[in-house]
Design goal:
The protein is an alpha/beta fold. It has helices at residues 12-27, 56-74, 94-98, 123-134, 163-179, 197-210, 226-237, 252-255, 260-266; strands at residues 3-7, 32-39, 43-45, 52-54, 83-90, 108-113, 139-143, 154-158, 182-189, 216-222, 241-247, 271-277.
């Protein structure tokens, strides 16, 4: 992993995301952080009052103010020592930002969310939903209230370990290697979808062997629902991160409403990383 993108609106949530990104960059010298801000230029009526033009005088004031804010962020103690570059882009939405030609080399996007990851009720949630929907790289959602040292010692990867998991795991593994924690593979078994423990464990061991995962554990975890099982297992380990796959064909919340990934992320106080599975998988 070499490039982390942190979209910022200068909120506490995006500040936490930057702290996490810089902590990774401090541990991995080859990793750099791109701090991106999208701004909108005010429009003013033309002399004919038929059309609107851009207020370039106001634009300069806005740009100068943003540069000052970015410069202030770059002087924070937690940034020092990390390679951080800034990106200031006008007239762009989230989708265009992550697909921008300068962001094609991004390996990870980090977003901050207030409290539990409640995407329905916050502007940050709306933006994060759009990022997850369109990003081709993993997206890490961190709690803005994150306290204590930033660490990813215990990472839970919850999956069924079938074809879809194999498609995107090589991309995900680059990020997980940079985080450096122990990976805990888990598949939750429910009464309605029973599978033999030995068979499930063999599937996970074969998965780890295929992708050369060295520092790992595996667990067939029994619970009433998959969502509850993932939460219970992650909390029992005092996990720092839950990783899951998601489809993003028509929008994370629209396609996955009521789904496992949304439910886990929506109620989790633990950071959650998602990776989008392509439609053809």
């Amino acid at each position: 992993m070499r490039k982390i993108l942190v979209p910022t609106d200068f909120s506490q949530a995006s500040l936490t995301a930057l702290k996490v990104a810089c902590s990774i960059a401090h541990r991995k010298a080859e990793v750099s952080v791109r701090l991106a801000h999208v701004y909108h230029v005010p429009r003013i009526p033309s002399v004919t009052n038929v059309d609107y033009g851009y207020d370039f005088r106001k634009q300069k004031i806005i740009v100068d103010e943003i540069h000052q804010k970015l410069g202030k962020l770059a002087k924070e103690d937690f940034v020092k020592g990390a390679k951080v570059e800034t990106q200031l882009i006008p007239h762009m939405d989230v989708q265009t930002l992550i697909n921008h030609k300068d962001n094609k080399d991004v390996d990870l996007i980090i977003c901050g969310i207030h409290g539990k990851i409640n995407w329905h009720d916050t502007m940050e949630g709306t933006k994060t939903e759009a990022i997850i929907r369109h990003a081709s790289c993993p997206v890490l959602c961190v709690n803005a209230e994150l306290k204590g040292p930033i660490k990813f010692d215990n990472i839970v990867f919850a999956s069924d370990f079938k074809k879809e998991a194999h498609v995107r795991f090589p991309v995900l593994k680059k990020v997980l290697n940079a985080l450096g924690g122990r990976i805990h593979l888990v598949k939750v078994i429910t009464p309605h979808h029973f599978e033999q423990t030995l068979s499930v464990e063999k599937t996970m061991k074969d998965f780890a062997r295929k992708f050369f995962i060295a520092n790992f554990t595996y667990k067939a975890f029994n619970d009433d629902t998959i969502e509850k099982g993932i939460h219970m297992y992650a909390y029992s380990l005092k996990a720092d991160l839950i990783v899951m796959e998601t489809h993003g064909r028509t929008g994370f919340m629209h396609l996955l409403k009521g789904s496992i990934t949304e439910s886990v992320a929506h109620h989790s106080e633990i950071s959650v990383m998602t990776i989008k599975i392509p439609e053809e998988a």
